[in-house]
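Box 3.1 A note on notation
Throughout this textbook, protein chains are presented in two layers. The first layer is the amino acid sequence; the second is a token string describing backbone geometry. Keep the layers aligned when reading.
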Amino acid sequence: MGNIVNLESRTKLKGRMKRIAGQVAGVQRMIEEDRYCVDILNQIAAVRSALDALGVELLSEHVEACVLGHGTGTEHKKAKPMKPAELLSELRTALTRFLR
């Protein structure tokens, strides 16, 4: 995906991931503690929402750095050189997978 250009963005994403990991661990504890199913489902919904927000952030950075910035040196260091049609195809694939 996109190049996480600055330290602030990277730090923000790492913080989100730590919170999501904590939420997932919370779901596991709730199951182990035989908590009420609806409470567990509510927590799962919160985890999914947090993952969606993280995905939107990463997709936004990818579009900005790797698609719009293609050829300017802002793309991820592991991004393959691509023609515009290939970039669009890659973006479509990423969006299709993300939106499932």
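The longest helix spans residues 37-68. The chain is about 75% helix and 0% strand.
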